[in-house]
Write a structure and sequence with these properties.
single chain; 312 residues; alpha/beta; Rossmann fold; two-stranded antiparallel sheet; 8 helices; coiled coil; AB_hydrolase_fold; hydrolase; Alpha beta family hydrolase; hydrolase activity
Length: 312
């Protein structure tokens, strides 16, 4: 009798786990489908609307910038910048969409837009980002502070602009292509101002990034003025799963320029919580003032937050 009861309980537990796994797969499919549609420009996040704003005119690219805005009237707003346009980068890039998805989950006002051009010394792209910041300031309920997050080429534009704007509270550089910085900006070093900025900043790459070596990234990270956080993300070591040709060796998952987005959520969550001194779920209610950084900002007890960290 006891054996029959135990067998029935085990069967019920298996069925419960199967239903749970099926529900998780269904939710993952719906989220992936939504993200694919957004990447293709056929859908938006809840509350997002198409917007246009004007930047400094350049003969090669006109003056109108196109973007997607979700105005949630939060005191902290986020602008996300995309990879190099000539190679297909736009506000629909998968990494950009993933970052916007995370910020949407936090309930923050978000803006993503497409640079008018990516050719030249970067002045046009910098003008686009400044115009995006100005557009947010013109909202009916403007944010009190801005968070700038850039991916790839966009991270270098953020590094160029963020230190110069007083209402930018913090900024993040995701997969900055330092190995190609001078080529992308025709000899101009756009990241130099970020190194001396006293604003909270995050920099992260994958250990297998195609456009920035770990050594180059490490040198940049060590040059950053605190408060700063840096991550060089390495993939997990996995056993060989080819049973027909078992090699007996473990294999490390590659984390490159394009797959880094799969590892961003916990990095961004932790950095945002430390930077603004509140749980991720409460960011929409925060005042946008970092807990440490520029003179006059709040401070945290010594040892609560390290200035730099590297994940191997």
């Amino acid at each position: 009798m006891n054996a029959a009861i135990l067998s029935l309980q085990a069967q019920l537990e298996r069925e419960r786990q199967e239903r749970q796994e099926a529900e998780i797969k269904r939710l993952q499919y719906e989220r992936e489908h939504m993200l694919r549609m957004i990447m293709m420009g056929r859908a938006s996040f809840d509350g997002e609307e198409s917007v246009r704003f004007t930047a400094d005119s350049h003969q090669c690219c006109g003056s109108t910038v196109h973007g997607r805005l979700a105005d949630r009237a939060t005191r902290l707003a986020v602008i996300v910048c995309h990879p190099w346009g000539p190679l297909g980068g736009s506000m629909h890039d998968p990494t950009v969409v993933s970052i916007v998805s995370l910020m949407t989950e936090a309930g923050l006002t978000t803006l993503r837009f497409s640079f008018r051009s990516g050719i030249g010394r970067g002045h046009s792209s910098a003008a686009d980002l400044r115009a995006a910041c100005a557009m947010l300031r013109s909202l009916d309920t403007p944010p009190e502070a801005l968070l700038l997050v850039g991916y790839s080429y966009g991270s270098l534009v953020v590094a160029d602009v963020a230190p110069t704007l007083p209402d930018v509270a913090a900024f993040a550089m995701v997969a900055p292509p330092f190995g190609f910085e001078r080529a992308l900006f025709l000899g101009r070093s756009v990241s130099a101002s970020a190194q001396q900025s006293a604003k909270p900043k995050l920099a992260c790459i994958g250990s297998d990034d195609q456009f920035c070596s770990p050594e180059l990234f490490d040198a940049f990270s060590k040059s950053l003025r605190p408060p700063c956080t840096s991550h060089c993300v390495r993939g997990e070591t996995l056993p060989c799963n080819d049973h027909d040709h078992e090699c007996g060796h473990a294999h490390r998952e590659m984390v490159d320029h394009f797959s880094l987005r799969m590892h961003l959520d916990p990095i961004l969550r932790a950095w945002l919580e430390h930077t603004f001194g509140c749980p991720f779920e409460q960011l929409a209610a925060c005042d946008g003032v970092p807990v440490r950084g520029d003179k006059g900002l709040r401070s945290v007890p010594e040892g609560e937050l390290s200035d730099a960290s590297v994940v191997d």
